[in-house]
Amino acid sequence: MRRTRILTTVLALAAGLLAGTPSALAAPAAPEVSISADSYTWKNARIDGGGFVPGIVFNRKEKNLAYARTDIGGAYRWQQASKTWTPLLDSVGWDDWGHTGVVSLASDSVDPDKVYAAVGTYTNNWDPTNGAVMRSSDRGASWQKADLPFKLGGNMPGRGMGERLAVDPNRNSVLYLGAPSGEGLWRSTDSGASWSQVTDFPNVGNYVQDPSDTSGYASDNQGIVWVTFDESTGTSGSATKTIYVGVADKDNAVYRSTDAGATWSRVAGQPTGYLAHKGVLDAANGYLYLAYSDKGGPYDGGKGRLWRYATASGTWTDISPVAEADTYYGFAGLTVDRQKPGTVMATAYSSWWPDTQIFRSTDSGGTWTKAWDYTSYPSRANRYTMDVSSSPWLTWGANPSPPEETPKLGWMTEALEIDPFDSNRMMYGTGATIYGTEDLTKWDSGSRFTIRPMVQGLEETAVNDLASPPSGAPLLSALGDIGGFRHTDLTKVPSMMFTQPNFTTTTSLDYAESSPNTVVRVGNLDSGPHIAFSTDNGANWFAGTDPSGVSGGGTVAAAADGSRFVWSPAGTGVQYATGFGNSWQASSGIPAGAIVESDRVDPTTFYGFKSGKFYVSSDGGATFTASSAAGLPSGDSVRFKALPGVKGEVWLAGGAPDGAYGLWHSTDGGASFTKLSNVEQADAVGFGKAAPGASYQTLYVSAKIAGVRGIFRSTDKGATWTRVNDDAHQWGWTGAAITGDPRVYGRVYVATNGRGVIYGETADGGSTDPDPDPDPDPDPTPTGACAVTYKVTNQWSGGFQADVQLSNTGSAAWSGWSLGWSFADGQRITQVWNAEHTQSGSAVSARNVGWNGSVAAGSSVSFGFTGSWSGTNAEPAAFKLGEQTCTVS
């Protein structure tokens, strides 16, 4: 789901993300910074999914090439060998954070190496940048960008319709893009490098979800919503003549050109009163299928229809599987089986209760069967079984009454695709994951097919807060939409999110520094308490009691010994309580909406911040006094933390480009603050284990230092800084939270707004494997032939990025692999993803990580890295798999 993310995360971003010129302050001393001087490995703390997947796209030419798009978390490519997803837009940086929202995606069926993504998160002023079309000629390993003169809305209403971006299947230099906001239809004739409006297209759309919404979110014109080519009307190298376009206009939803886009007209005889969410063409049978809803989605929709248009005769046929009076949902997910023309499937995307529905026809919509049906209400019979053992939290810990079941088949099911090369494989997106099956045709034989999550590697949570206690679980998270998790093993999916209660969004959490088994979290819930407590380090929870007036989670702080709590909820003022929050009292001297934190040593000391003022309480939160500290940021885009182990030491990050902005340090309990001159901007600060030989805890910040945005580390109290991420690993906006691990030097956890919890580990410090194998194979040596493709995908002064594909060309499967090579020009690897590596001089060895060690005969596995170079950057001439020399291409 994504409801809360719109109203909480985004509105907070709007106040603090308008990156621009540094604030007008006294000229800082020259900062000491080492850019990308450390070798870090970056991974996700596994959750698997967690957000809405509105689009899945299979390439029509190459088997097993598929992509998924998310509304705020970027795009992904399917890796068949490991059955995982690889993120493709982690290089999107802070200033362009909106480009992590993907409104549409297109894979080129002429040249499968080419892929395109239309990016931009909001069409209103929440997103300060215009949209763009990203183009890649290496399957998303690297990108070029064409900026557009208007915004795109990957997280706007109607984002499940599509695809709005399409490549001509006969002349692949031609692309079309449907725009929102009355901007019309756009075309590129140079493979996405430049775009111009199709001025002759007659309708820019007129449907808005809520014209009265003054924010511009629900009142935007949803515009042109899909483009579909009839490939049978063109020949290779010549532009396809017939093109269909869907428009957000209930009376004029479908347009067509029969002269390769020169002229356009409304398709005659079409149904009215609905929006066409999808238009999918079965060229073999000459049918255009259309899924209609009375609303734009992805949440709403009360009525819907399915129609079939015969492209040769112009005949329209209502093929809806149920009578209009029996629908309480709209149709959206729509796909055809390219191996079995006449097989078509559709979803009831907005059937929230008791479950979504999937329909299937094998006679071009003449008759239909359902994924589930009632036997005798409320009992139901399912054609499928669900196996969520890989993501057990998808049950939500629920125990619903029939006809509801858990796990649900899904909700917001706007993406549905049958693999064009395999009738048995289907994937569909939901509000929380990607589900799929590999035995779909059992549907037709009457036996049950199995649905499983097909989402590993796709991490799509918005992270509001993070904590890494000194004992117990290494990571606790506060997340949008799915609450949060306790990670006892970063490499494994936790069995369940926080429950009892289940917050739709957790806004803040804290633990008692000297008693880490005591944990508190606060969040949003439609009905019920907004605070919960744990006495076993977050493994189990019980609800607290809300004071009067609470409407949302806000921020919360636990006393250092867990004896009391201070809570600043939405809807009322700051409160304090002894014990576990059964009796709250109003704090005095501090304004409502203040951010609150606790001193990590003194259990009676708490801190607050609001509108440029720092507040201190020395009586357990009963009364606060405003500090005389001046020069702090005037707005509320601020995050601060007290240092563990030292009373009264506070670090504060935040600000905005038009005022004070940076990192401040106090050693006197907030009575005064000193601004660090070598940090231009900072948005989150955290602490981790001290470096070997250092006495002060390691500082981590999401900041701008020496003109560079990134994740930085200091081992000397902020005197010098090292950037620990690189340009390939930026993850858009990272300002919500950051924390080091108090037990592992160098490990840092980074909150993203759509890419989940990222954690990095340094080769200079702690373990790079949070769950090391107690008896690892030191050198996997698979037998049989192998082939390697090595490609430099990006190169800049002193640095480069490369992708390596290792193929099993033998006859036996591998259960592990280790690939070796030598660099001829002194190159050094700095970071690796999807592999582990060692380097001694010029010799490099890369080996599998746990999940990609199995490589079937005829399959391949890929990994990538960034490195440094000088002089020349020649590609390695030879590769060895153990003692086996691989073919190089």
Describe the structure.
The chain is mostly beta strands and 889 residues long. It has two helices and 69 strands. The strands form 17 sheets. It has a five-stranded mixed beta sheet, with no helix packed on it. A hairpin with a 6-residue loop joins strand 55 and strand 56 (721-723). It is globular and about 80 Å long. The chain starts with a helix and ends with a strand.
Topology of this structure?
Layout: H1 3-16, E1 33-34, E2 40-44, E3 55-58, E4 66-69, E5 75-79, E6 84-87, E7 102-107, E8 115-119, E9 132-136, E10 144-147, E11 165-167, E12 175-178, E13 185-188, E14 196-197, E15 224-229, E16 243-247, E17 254-257, E18 265-266, E19 275-282, E20 287-293, E21 304-310, E22 316-318, E23 331-336, E24 344-348, E25 357-361, E26 369-370, E27 372-374, E28 380-382, E29 384-386, E30 416-418, E31 426-429, E32 434-437, H2 442-445, E33 449-453, E34 463-467, E35 475-479, E36 486-487, E37 505-512, E38 515-524, E39 531-534, E40 542-543, E41 552-558, E42 564-570, E43 575-578, E44 585-586, E45 595-598, E46 606-610, E47 613-617, E48 625-626, E49 638-642, E50 650-655, E51 661-666, E52 674-675, E53 681-688, E54 698-705, E55 708-714, E56 721-723, E57 738-740, E58 748-751, E59 757-762, E60 786-796, E61 799-808, E62 818-822, E63 828-833, E64 836-840, E65 843-847, E66 860-868, E67 879-881, E68 884-885, E69 887-888
Parallel strand pairs: 1-56, 29-33, 60-69
Antiparallel strand pairs: 2-59, 3-4, 4-5, 5-6, 7-8, 8-9, 9-10, 11-12, 12-13, 13-14, 15-16, 16-17, 17-18, 19-20, 20-21, 21-22, 23-24, 24-25, 25-26, 27-28, 30-31, 31-32, 32-33, 34-35, 35-36, 37-38, 38-39, 39-40, 41-42, 42-43, 43-44, 45-46, 46-47, 47-48, 49-50, 50-51, 51-52, 53-54, 54-55, 55-56, ...
